[in-house]
Amino acid sequence: MSQNEKRLSHAVGGNSGHDNDPPANPDPQRLIWIKPGKFTMGSPSTEQDRDSNEGPQTHVTISKGFWMSKYEVTQQEYQAVMGTNPSKNTGDERRPVENVAWTDASNYCDELTAHERAAGRLPERHAYRLPTEAEWEYCCRAGTTTRFGYGDDSSFTQLGEYACYDSNSSNAAAPVGGKEPNAWGLYDMHGNVWEWCWDWYGTYPGGNVLDPRGPTTGSHRVIRGGSWYVFGCDCRSAYWDRFSPDYTLAGFRPVLASGKASAFRKSITPKVPF
Hints:
The protein is α+β, with helices and mostly antiparallel strands and 274 residues long. It has a single domain (3-258), classed as Alpha-Beta Complex (paralog of FGE (formylglycine-generating enzyme)). It has helices at residues 3-9, 75-82, 102-118, 133-141, 159-162, and strands at 31-34, 37-41, 58-62, 66-69, 126-129, 195-200, 207-210, 221-224, 240-243, 255-258. The longest helix is centred in the middle third of the chain and has 17 residues, at 102-118. The model is unreliable at 1-12 and 262-274 (pLDDT under 50).
């Protein structure tokens, strides 16, 4: 088995259960199946460069499998679905779309769902949506408990192999998929562009939680992963921040999961997406 095949064989993730055998992958070039499982969200108090909002550590159970996009949504993909490219760093359509508000990202997921459903390519009762913060960190960690999905890397000597960030970015995001993937076959989970998550920004509950979706209301949405202009410490698996939902300095990657689409259109008041 090749190294790449070994990586992808682990992309199924966590525990056994009925979600281990998903419907046929509707888009194998873009989607990786993530099995349900458990992980610890946030960082320990001893982690280098830790921020105080990364605790208390919370033991999370992801009870249902889902597909995660291997890549951040590209400018070409966004243009094809939405008819526009809001990005400032243009010139290569393989770069991730950026300059996207949370509303825009959620609307893209709705439009993509409608397009793919009309084409007969979606499994029954499945829809695209933004990942929850817990789903995002679960995928970023890919079974690890270290600062990054590949190790602790205290001196950031390996980060450039996995991430486009301030030390190697040439002041712009890089085309997606150009760095090494994590153990589950996901690319650019560290750096390149901030990625919107579904959740409102709030504090972690601690203890044990099942499929958390964040607070029910708020003023800011969660962003994850770091970006091409940030320091390496801000690309860690546990690092998280927030933007106002109408702030346009982020990208995103969708998940495909069972349940209803977000049906998010004009209002920024969320409807339960799944």
